Amino acid sequence: MKNFSYWLTLLLMVLGLGIVKAQEIQKLKLPLEVQQELGQGLNSLKPQRLSKFPLKKVLAEDQVHPGTRFAAPLSVDFSLDQSGAWETLKNGDAIWRLKINSANALGLVVFYDNFYIPSGAQLRVYNGDGTQILGPFTSFDNKPNGKFLTGLVLGETAVLEYYEPSAVLGEGRFHIGRVDHAYHQENLDASGFETVARAELGFGGASPCTINVNCPDGADYVKEKRAVCRIFLVVQEGTGYCTGSLINNTKNDGRPLMISAFHCQDFYTPLYDLWRFDFNYESIGCDNPASEPAYQSILGCKLLAGRQENDFLLMELNSSVPANYKAYFLGWNRTFTAARTAGIIHHPRGDTKKVSIINTPVSPINLTLNWNNNVTSPPGSHLSADINLGIFQTGSSGSALLDADKRFIGQLHGGIIPKLTCDSIAVARFGRLAVSWDDGSTPATRLKDWLDPLNNGATTLDGMENPTRTGGKIAGKVKTESNVGIPGARVTLLGNNGLSLSTTTDAQGNYSFDSVPFGDTYDVSVSKNGAASNGITTFDLIKVQKHILNLEILTLLKQFAGDVNKSRSLSTLDLILMRRIVLGLDTEFAEVPSWYFLPSQGTFNVPNDAFSGITSGANLVSSFTKDVLNFDFFAIKFGDVNDSVDVTK
After folding, report:
1. Separation CA 357–CA 346 (nearest Å)
2. Do residues 480 and 641 touch, judged by C-beta distance below 8 A?
3. In the chain, fewer beta carbons within 10 Å around the N or the C end?
4. Are 108 and 217 in contact (CB under 8 A)?
C-alpha cells in the first residue's frame, strides 16, 4: 500500500491550530524547496527582446501635447503556454520564468489580460539584477475583468517568475499584450514644471530638495497625510505618475472619492480600470529609506467629474478603502479667498510621500493663465502660493492645497521651480475649489453634486477617519482538480454572530455571499447530493490498481478520491468497494459521501487524521475585513479518479 498526504494546511489550522486572518491566507509559507528556487537563475535566462522603442516619435508627440507620461507602450504577445520556460520541482510544483528586455529603457511596466492566479500560486517581477522585486501577487489580486499590472521595475530588463503548486497545476493563466518603456523626456510637461530628463522615476527619484512627510516639518499632518496616495495612471498612450487625495462628502459615509488634477490625463485616452492608487507609500522616519517601503493599493476607478479650465479631476475608487489602510478623508473649504495656508503632501516623480510648507499668504490669480499644453485658465480660477520649504516636481500634480485648518482648497496644477538651490522659493499654482464647486454646468463638470450630495449648501466640511464599513463579499468557485466548475452545489455560511446563509453554485461553479458583516468569524461548508455511481467506471478501477502497483501514481487529490474506505491509503479493499458500485451491488459507500469539498487555499501537508471530525468546508477568517474575499473549493467525487464524472448530476 502507498501512504500519501492530501490534506491542506488551512484545514489543519481549523482543526487545532487556531484561526487565520484573511491577510494570512495569501501568505502561507512556501515549502523550503520552493523558497530556495525563487529568484534563481535569472541571469541565465535568454531574454525576449522587444521591438525598437520609437523614441523620436514619442518625443514628437510630447512636444505637441506635453503631459505626465513617462512611459509609452510596446505591443507584445506573451503567455504561460507559448512563452518563457517552465521548470518542474521535485515536489511536483512548477515555476515559469520569462525575461523581457527593451533596449535603453529606464524602466518597464508589464500589463496583463485574462489574468487569473489560482489559490496558492504567486507571481513576482524582478529587475535585471534581482535587486528590485515586485510582489508576490496572489489570487487576492484577481479582478473580475481579468486585467492587471505589476508596476514599474527600473532598468531595461524585467524578469517574471510565476510559481504554481502541484495542487493547482495548469489552472493559472494570463496573457501579456503590452509593456510600457520608460524613456528620457526632455520637453516641458503640461504643468509648466522644470525641464526634466526623467532619469529618475519611482522610488528614490525625487529631488534632494524634497522633504519626507515624516520629517519634523510634516509633524502637523499626521492625519491628513493618510488621505494622500500616489496615482500610477494608465492611458492608452502610456503611463504616468500623479498625486491624489481622499476627500469627504456631506454624507460622511466614506465613499471613496479621490481628487486630483485634470491635466494628469488630459489629451490622453484614460484606462481607468488600470489606474492604481498606492496608499501609505512613505519613509518610516525623516531619512530616505535604504530600501523601497511597502504600500497598500486599490486598482481601478471611474471618472465622476473633471474640468480642464480649473484643472480638477474627481474619481471614485472601484472599492471601499480597507480599514487596515487607516485612511483619512480630507475636509474642505469652498469659501477660501486669501489667507496663509499650511502646505501640500505629494509624491514627486512617483517617489515616497513628501511635504512642502507655505509660510506666506495665498491669494487668487486675477490674470489669464496660459499653460504649456495650449490650455488657458480664466482669471480667478487659480490660487498662487510660494513654497518656502521643499519643492514640487512632476508627479506632484493633483496634490491638495490645505488651508490653515488643513482643509482642501485646491489641487496643484503647475508652477515655476527656480534651478538654484534648495533654499530657492518655488511658485505653485492651484486649481481653486471655490471655482470648481459650481462653475461647470453639469455634475460631470463641477464638484458640488459629489461633495455635497445632501445639497445642504455647506461651505466647509471637516475631515474624518475612514468610517467603519458594514460588510463585504465572500465569494469563490467550487471546481474539480481540472478546473471544471460544479453547478448546483449547496454552499452554507455560518457566523459566530448567528448569521446563517446558503446559496447554490451557478453553471460555472461560482458562489457569492454579499453584505457579510465585518469583524466576525465565519465557516463555509459545501455539499452536493448525487449518486455514488456517477463517474465510477472500470477505468477508475484500472487507475487505482496501477497506483497500488506503482505503475501510475495518482495526484494527491485523486488518491483522496480513491480512498473510499477512509483508511488513508489506497488498497484492494477500495477496489472491491468501487467494483460493487460499478456492478450495482451497492448504491452508496458506507464510509464516505458521494461528494466531498476541500478548500483550495494552502499547500498539502501530512494529515493528522484525514477524516476524523472534519466537515466538508473550512473556517475562513477572524475579524473579516476585506471588501471581497475569494475562497475556492476543490470538489472530490469519491471513486472517480479519471475525471469522468458528470458535474451536472
Report:
1. 11
2. no
3. N
4. no
